[in-house]
């Protein structure tokens, strides 16, 4: 039976997870969420996987949008891989509740721990630790592929109770303000006006003005712009000039740019309109 793997990626962790899952599952297609148009989403597989990074201990806005576009079809097997830096918290519980509100059932949800790309809070850590996390994630995806292949139900994975309560509160508080968190981005004098940041942004949030990037306040906080800048010229706040950049070592700049190039040109405005219409509401 065929599996559709829908993924959202900024710095490559979720793209790598989708590729790894596809290899283990066989007869699977990986599909960027950035390419999704239409309502409802057109699905061909008997199983549907949603692979995404955890943003501020919860679902990214783009994933919420995608779930709202899923067809009300209960015959398919839905599962999720929540890629995070060590604290999945209540993200998959949030997803389970959101899908139930759509009349759908999340049969399984897994926590995939990967190197951190959230550079405002520091670099990705020592290389040995990064490679160990990637190795462990590979082994975990291999194990859970058996569960998915057999279409088994599995309780969604979650963090400890204190984490779920505290971080869910922080997520709810932060979520309405995510589009304007880009006010802390800036380009230093290493910027050579290559425009990669504009090309790679999944939500069309960057324009070049006087040969420098300008952020337009409908940010998704994927951090693709800062992590993929070839000159490390984009900064966030005051501390990032001294932090190491990160993208998944098996994902290239061309991999991510190709996703953006093939995306529908109206995705940025469509995405922003969705966020405004939802008015920052969280279903959890």
Which architecture of the largest domain does the CATH hierarchy give at level 2?
Answer: 3-Layer(aba) Sandwich
Strand order of the largest sheet: 2-1-3-4-5
Radius of gyration: 18 Å
Q: Give the overall silhouette.
A: globular
Detailed description of the structure:
- It is a single chain.
- The C terminus is likely disordered.
- The chain is an alpha/beta fold.
- It starts with a strand and ends in a 6-residue tail after the last helix.
- The longest helix is centred in the middle third of the chain and has 23 residues.
- The protein is globular and about 55 Å long.
- It folds into two domains: 165 residues, Rossmann fold (3-Layer(aba) Sandwich); 105 residues, Alpha-Beta Plaits (2-Layer Sandwich).
- The strands form three sheets. Strands 2-1-3-4-5 form a five-stranded parallel sheet, sandwiched between helices. Strands 6-9 form a two-stranded antiparallel sheet. Strands 7-8 form a two-stranded antiparallel sheet.
In short:
The protein contains nine helices and nine strands.
Key words describing this protein structure:
2 domains, 17% strand, Alpha-Beta Plaits, two-stranded antiparallel sheet, 284 residues, alpha/beta, 36% helix, single chain, five-stranded parallel sheet, Rossmann fold, globular, disordered C terminus
């Amino acid at each position: 039976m065929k599996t559709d793997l829908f993924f959202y990626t900024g710095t490559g962790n979720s793209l790598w997870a989708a590729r790894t899952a596809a290899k283990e599952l066989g007869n699977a297609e990986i599909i960027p969420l950035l390419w999704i148009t239409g309502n409802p989403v057109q699905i061909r597989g008997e199983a549907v996987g949603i692979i995404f990074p955890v943003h501020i201990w919860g679902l990214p806005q783009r994933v919420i949008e995608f779930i709202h576009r899923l067809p009300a079809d209960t015959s398919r097997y839905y599962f999720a891989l929540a890629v995070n830096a060590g604290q999945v918290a209540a993200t998959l519980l949030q997803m389970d509740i959101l899908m139930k509100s759509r009349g759908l059932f999340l049969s399984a949800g897994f926590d995939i721990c990967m190197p951190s790309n959230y550079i405002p809070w520091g670099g990705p850590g020592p290389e040995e630790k990064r490679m160990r996390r990637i190795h462990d994630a590979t082994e975990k995806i291999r194990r859970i592929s058996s569960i998915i292949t057999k279409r088994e139900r599995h309780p969604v994975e979650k963090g400890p109770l204190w984490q779920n309560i505290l971080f869910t509160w922080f997520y709810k508080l932060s979520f309405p303000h995510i589009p304007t968190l880009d006010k802390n981005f800036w380009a230093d004098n290493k910027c050579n006006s290559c425009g990669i940041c504009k090309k790679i942004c999944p939500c069309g949030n960057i324009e070049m003005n006087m040969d420098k990037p300008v952020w337009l306040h409908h940010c998704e906080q994927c951090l693709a712009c800062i992590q993929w800048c070839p000159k490390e010229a984009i900064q966030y706040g005051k501390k990032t000039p001294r932090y190491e950049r990160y993208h998944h070592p098996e994902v290239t700049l061309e991999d991510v740019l190709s996703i953006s190039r093939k995306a529908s040109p109206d995705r940025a405005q469509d995405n922003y309109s969705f966020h405004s219409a939802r008015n920052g509401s969280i279903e959890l």
